[in-house]
Amino acid sequence: MKLAALLLLPGLLRSTIAYTTLSDSSLHLLSTPGSDFDINNGKLLAPILRPRVPGTPGSEAVLFHFVDFFAAHLPAWKLTFQNSTSTTPTSGGAQVPFRNLIATRDPPWSSGGGDVGRLALVAHYDSKIEPAGFIGATDSAAPCAMLLHVARSIDAALTAKWAAMETSSQQAAEKWTEDLEDNNQGVQILLLDGEEAFKVWTHTDSLYGARALAEEWDNTYHPALSTYRTSLASIDLFLLLDLLGAAEPSVPSYFKTTHWAYRLMSSVESRLRKAHGIMKTTPRHPFLTEGDKNEMSRWVGGYIEDDHVPFMARGVDVLHLITSPFPHVWHTMMDDGEHLDLNTVSDWAMIVLGFVAEWMDLEGFLGADGEVAGRARKGVRDEL
Ligand SMILES: *[C@@H]1O[C@H](CO)[C@@H](O)[C@H](O)[C@H]1NC(C)=O
Ligand SMILES: [Zn+2]
Keyword Transferase on this protein (predicted)? Predict the structure, then answer.
């Protein structure tokens, strides 16, 4: 199913995103995180479960865990840093460094500049300075690990899909060149620093990394006549994960403007729950609690301040995956690996993965052998 009608909805005005629902067999081809989310020796999550206050060795070690992960397993993703410094209420006048890591994968034919729109997947990797030794497993070590899992789980399918599109475009120049242009969609993982306040949350003591990045990208202009004017404008959707990993979560839909995207993800969740053997929890209600909400329903005013704020203030569309209420371990020493519900962490990873795979139009390209799947799909398309 192609949701072309989406183009008429507010919030998705500028691009021709082809959002394709995954078939049941494709849902089963999505890889599960398995033991890589083990809190003691799992490849993805364990290295993040340590204090990582900005400017400390723990922060550096976690940052290099991310860099190593992409370098070792996902060499096609382009890594960039966006660094800034700021004093904080506890730094005694000293400049604290904040380092955002951006991992980007664009179609091979794109210039990587103003011609590609991107789905941005976002979480903060810093941890709160107090209480001393605070781990922040839900806040946001687990969401970071989920994003690493998503990146590695779509990588081969992206390669296969883009290769198939290029091949087809060579065969039937006109139609497929158009198709290439219409599908100039990339994906980007933003691992942000300095989300937490050092003392008390204020507009200046919080969101250090996000504020620096939003400002820089708002002022990074693409060449004249580009489809997207700035790096900030290239973000089709800013999908922010935070405070995920405690059992029985509830995530409402916060913004009318992106409720369409929330509903797409809610549909992914319900299909994953119906598919046998993918999801590990049987919660009392879906994690995404407001899939049925509509214009006429009650919309809570205001929202939770988080890394999306400086982006939303500049007009970026935001889908905020944060639990309400917050996990009961929030900002306490109990927010550690042992208090995570790993089945819930795994299920969140699958929900986000399913949504991203649909957004990136990967139907027909998932599976161990992406190339074969891709050829099968191309065959189908050639018959149309
Ligand atoms: C940003 O910080 C990272 C990590 O410390 C460092 O490797 C990188 O060289 C810095 N980049 C710039 C442009 O200063
Ligand atoms: Zn926090």
Answer: yes
* 195 is annotated as an active-site residue: yes
Distance between CA atoms of residues 238 and 257, nearest Å: 12
Domains of the chain in sequence order: 34-372 (3.40.630.10)
Residues in the chain: 384
Of 101-115, 117-131, 174-188, the poorest mean pLDDT is in 174-188
Instruction: Compute CA 109 distance to the chain's CA centroid, rounded to the nearest angstrom.
Output: 23
Pocket lining: 273 vs ligand 1, CB cutoff 6 Å: no
Atom of ligand 1 nearest to the CA of 81: 1
Give CA 90 to chain center in angstroms. Answer: 31
Per-residue pLDDT, 20: 86
pTM value > 0.85: yes
Among residues 112, 109, 110, the alpha carbon closest in space to that of 167 is found at: 109
Query: Taking Cα atoms as reference points, which of 142, 67, 179, 152 lies closest to residue 337?
Result: 142
Q: Which residue has the tokens 């998503």?
A: 150
Choose, from 126, 218, 242, 335, the residue flagged as catalytic: 242
DSSP H or E run through 371: helix 370-383
Parallel, antiparallel, or unpaired: how do β-strands 78-86 and 235-242 relate? unpaired
How remote is the CA of residue 266 from the centroid of ligand 2, in Å? 25
Instruction: Give the other-Cβ count within 10 Å of 27's Cβ.
Output: 21
Query: Buried b vs exposed e over 170-200: b needs ≥16 C-beta within 10 Å?
Result: eeeeeebeeebeebbbbbbbbbbbbbbbbee
| pLDDT for 175 beyond 80 | no
Any ligand 1 atom below 6 A from CB of 83: yes
Reported in sequence order, the residue ranges of the chain that DSSP labels E, i.e. its strands, are 78-86, 96-105, 117-124, 185-192, 235-242, 318-322
Q: Is there a cis peptide before residue 108, judged by omega within 30 degrees of 0?
A: no
Going from the Cα of 349 to the center of ligand 2, the distance in angstroms, rounded, reads: 20
The token pair at 133 is 């030794």
**Residues within 5 Å of ion ligand 2, judged at the Cβ atom:** 139
Q: CA 304, CA 299: separation in Å to the nearest integer?
A: 14
Q: Is 81 in the pocket of ligand 1 (CB under 6 A)?
A: yes
| pLDDT at residue 171, as a whole number | 73
